[in-house]
Protein 1
Amino acid sequence: MRAALSAAALLGLAFTGGAFAQEDSHARFHSYYQDWVNFAGDACCNSSDCRELAPEHERTDANGNLEVYVRGVGVAFGTAAWCKVLPRHYLRRGNAPNWASSHVCISTWYGGNTPCEQLVCYQPKPGG
């Protein structure tokens, strides 16, 4: 039993490690993120909401829909979900800060109570 729990803990760390590694990218790219606006007309950035997205946190579902893995913030802290990227999530204004990865903005500004409701903006990896 103890070995199974240890293995599960290690697997959990391996799965989420990429996400935590991405957390510090907001400060590095804030000058780009602060001007982002999505197709719903919402500002994307609240000084710490945006970050690079680890490649393993993007996928296409069986129906061909793009999904991103979102870890909730605020009231949704401690929860996570695969969330469908909707047309409103794409940028109306702003540019990708680099060509290395996709970027997401997760925020409680707009009252989201679940990880998917907190997905505000998505910028795909240019050329990806």
Protein 2
Amino acid sequence: MNSYIVNRKIIASVIVLILSFVSFKQSYAQCTSAFTTNSSIIGCEDLGTQFIDKSIGFVSNRIWNFGVGLPTSAQSPYKVFKSNGGITLYDVSLTITCLGGLISTATKTVTVLPKPKAEFRFDKIPVCAIVEQMKIINTSPTSPGITFTWDLGDNTTTTSFNPIHTFNASGSYNVILNVNNGICINTVFDRFDVYPTPNPEFVVDQSLGCLPAKAPLLDRTVQNEIFRLYEWDMGDGSPLRIISPVDPTFSLNRVPTYTYSSPGTFPIRLSITNRSGCRNTTLNYFSVANRPTVTGSTTFSSQNVCEDQDFNISFTPPPLPNDQNVKFDFGLATIISSTTTPGGVINIVLRYNSPFMATVNTVTGFSENDITIISGNLAC
């Protein structure tokens, strides 16, 4: 009886082992293909997607097919999808082989939307800073709903179709175009070079002069680069005064010597060209007036003036325009008094403290007439 019970227990254990072995083989023989992605599988071209194998069961082999390009056996491959010009569909599949030889396949569809086309070119490369404009020719196709945004590389942005821009400094700039069709954005860029431009600067030491008038020019240009050409236009139709920076005396003689022979207001221009071929010009004005003639009568108390004695001058001026007046230059004389009669006669009392040849100048406007007074011990 006991032997019978023991045999039954042994038989039961064997049956359990057999069933477990069969179940184990079946679990190894079966598996299910599955995968996910780390981002949306619908997007604009150049859509990059990471595929992650989530298959269930014991896998002996896996093959990914992306609908384009070569397959791969990587567990979690990364793939970039492009558009064929329109909405493009890619069937991505993961096929696995179980340890028992069974095959399972999972499939997802990737949808790629086309980006708008973006392209442009420059009208001229390079340009000179300040004095020249960068002109962009946008060759991108356009249609309703498409917008264009530019970054010109110097903190300037614009939505113009064909931008025109002036750079204030030299350098290399990345010009970026973003084209947006409302769903996808396409970005392209190109480098644009800008050459330095000289900064000419000069002043007219006095704005008015009398014939014959020498141009009172002072050059204030800072030479922080190599200049190729220095040009002065005196504004009266005369030939340009060209000063070559190659001349050894250039640093000392950058201003021409020029005398005006006719009255007028003259626009004087200084143009400088550097070794890059960039040219810049600055402008100032110089006015030249005719020298007026003094026709008034002057009466002296004596032509022989003794030092330390009073000397009288009476001057009757002619009628003068409103923009002219009369003044005197008495040299080293001391003015004792100055009065004007109701009739306009000017009476001046002077005193000279030492003997010399004095020149009394009667000045109207910008010119002068000289009247010589002899001073000394004669009859003193």
